[in-house]
Write a structure and sequence with these properties.
- It is a single chain.
- With 382 residues, this protein is mainly α.
- The protein contains 16 helices and three strands.
- It folds into two domains: 9-221 and 345-355, Citrate Synthase, domain 1 (Orthogonal Bundle), CATH 1.10.580; 226-327, Cytochrome p450-Terp, domain 2.
- The chain has helices at 38-44, 47-56, 62-74, 80-87, 95-109, 118-142, 157-166, 172-184, 192-202, 207-218, 226-237, 243-253, 272-285, 292-308, 317-327, 335-355, and strands spanning 22-25, 30-33, 36-37.
- Strands 1-2-3 form a three-stranded antiparallel beta sheet.
- Strand 2 and strand 3 (36-37) form a beta hairpin.
- Helix 1 (38-44) packs antiparallel against helix 8 (172-184).
- The protein starts with 21 loop residues before the first strand and ends in a 27-residue tail after the last helix.
């Protein structure tokens, strides 16, 4: 029987698994995928290569990467009946709800009833990575009255997603920005959605249900949904000159007010991913005027540094990602689905790892209810 002394809300600092997928040192802002710093991967690698790295454990050979890339391109298309399902979803629904339903539905069209067949597991792994952009773009287009586009096998992962969303090829600069963003969001140790994926995977549920459960976890505003809220926050402020008055008013009304995009359970310094995203934003805006939202974010970070910095609270990845996505024309409520497009690689890496020596998760609880209660028949109750 567990006691209050054993209980840690949110499982804070409780090891839930042994993993070699990624490493995070929140005091030094170090994030590594299989030992390689994420900022190096964002600048030098591709999302396809990083996906292989996370799942397989090492960088691919030239042939392995070429074969993997070909497999991804071959599995981007989705069943026509799944397109019908997406077309019939409510247009005013949230894209994360649509993605959750669509990914779960994949398992009906491309069955993987058992997780004991390595070939079927790999097919599902590749299909999930490849089809996620297709699913996200399909709902984004149908809700605005546009036709679902067929994937372009001549474009890479990031370029194909942009095409599916907008019906045109991205510029080389936008493609690189989007690819880097996918890499930065691909993995982040034992967060809520990754833990969800491992818990679901530990039941030997099929990979589509495992990833669908992780998507549900990611959708919350305390997790992946924070990037949407951060951008809306910048829009609410209305400009850099209004930041201090806005924050003063929020803290006066609620001294514990949470600034979206600021703070992280693990990081005690500025999130390394936020630093890379800020560099990407600076590069993007070097040849054009800076958006008001970006100027607002910079000023908010500066003001918050004086208030929250001494407490070890700094910007996280969500603080700047929304500004970058908005600058390349992506709708605000599609930000979190892009997070899922990227993070599916990390989820699948953890799912694959979980299946090795699997043991179903069955934690304890601290019971706070009553014992030895008597049943009172309904006719004797008020």
């Amino acid at each position: 029987m567990s006691t209050d002394a054993d209980y840690k809300p949110g499982l804070e600092d409780v090891p839930a698994a042994k993993s070699a997928v990624s490493f995070l040192d929140g005091k030094k802002a170090v994030l590594e995928y299989r030992g390689i710093p994420v900022e190096v991967l964002a600048k030098e690698s591709s999302f396809e290569e990083v996906s292989w790295l996370l799942i397989k454990g090492s960088l691919p050979t030239q042939k392995e990467l070429a074969d993997f890339d070909r497999e991804l391109r071959q599995r981007r298309s989705i069943h026509f009946r799944l397109k019908d399902i997406i077309r019939n979803m409510p247009g005013d629904g949230h894209p994360m709800d649509a993605l959750h339903a669509a990914v779960a539905s994949l398992g009906m069209f491309y069955p993987c009833h058992t997780v004991t067949n390595p070939a079927k597991n790999w097919d599902a792994t590749v299909r999930l990575i490849a089809a996620m952009p297709t699913l996200v773009a399909a709902f984004a287009r149908t809700r605005r009255g546009d036709e679902i586009l067929d994937p372009r096998p001549d474009l890479d992962h990031a370029g194909n997603f942009y095409y599916l969303l907008f019906g045109k090829e991205p510029t080389p600069a936008i493609r690189k920005v989007l690819d880097a963003c996918l890499i930065l969001h691909a993995e982040h140790t034992m967060n809520a959605s990754t833990f969800t994926a491992r818990v679901t995977g530990s039941t030997l549920a099929n990979p589509y249900q495992t990833i669908a459960s992780a998507i549900g976890s990611l959708s919350g505003p305390l997790h992946g949904g924070a990037n949407e809220e951060a951008l809306r926050q910048f829009e609410e402020i209305g400009g850099p000159e209004k930041v201090k008055a806005w924050l003063d008013a929020k803290l006066a009304a609620n001294p514990k007010y949470k600034v979206m995009g600021i703070g992280h359970r693990v990081y005690k310094v500025k999130d390394a991913r936020a630093t890379v995203l800020q560099e990407i934003a600076e590069h993007m805006f070097a040849e054009s005027s800076r958006p008001v939202g970006y100027e607002t974010a910079l000023e908010l970070e500066r003001v918050c540094a004086g208030i929250y910095g001494p407490k070890g609270i700094y910007p996280n990845v969500d603080f700047y990602s929304g500004v970058v996505y908005s600058a390349i024309g992506i709708p605000t409520d599609v930000f979190t689905p892009i997070f899922a497009i990227a993070r599916v690689a990390g989820w699948l890496a953890h799912w694959t790892e979980q299946l090795v020596g699997n043991r179903i998760f069955r934690p304890e609880q601290v019971f706070t209810g009553k014992n030895d209660q008597k049943y009172v028949p309904l006719d004797q109750r008020p």
